[in-house]
Amino acid sequence: MEQIAEDRRISSIESKLNSLIQRLPDLERRLGVLERPSETSESPPTKIHNNYLNRVISEAWRGYKKW
């Protein structure tokens, strides 16, 4: 029973990682829009690093491999 529960948990993590990887280009495109400088003072910061997405995926993968 414990093995089945662990297999399901691993499968769920793999599914989430694959979903993030598939969505990465869209998320990078959205971040690119935020990175564009704007003429207004209320614009979002111009340097939002999309390395954040890669770091999130890397940390999730490392956590997965520890199992």
Features:
single chain; 67 residues; mainly alpha; 75% helix
Describe the structure.
The protein has 67 residues and is mainly α. It has one domain (18-66). 75% of the residues lie in helices and 0% in strands. It has two helices and no strands. Helix 1 packs antiparallel against helix 2. The longest helix has 34 residues, at 2-35. It is elongated, with a radius of gyration of 17 Å. The mean pLDDT is 73.
Tell me briefly what this model is.
With 67 residues, the chain is mainly α.
Overall radius of gyration: 17 Å
Structural class computed from helices and strand pairing: mainly alpha
Number of domains: 1
Strand content: under 5%
What is the overall pLDDT average? Answer: 73
Number of strands: 0
Share of helix among residues?
A: over 70%
The largest pleated sheet is described as: none
Low-pLDDT residue spans: none
* Quaternary organisation: single chain
Shape: elongated
The ordered string of helix (H) and strand (E) elements is: HH
Q: What's the helix count?
A: 2
Q: Distance N terminus to C terminus?
A: 17 Å
Question: Secondary-structure blueprint of this entry?
Answer:
Elements: H1 2-35, H2 51-66
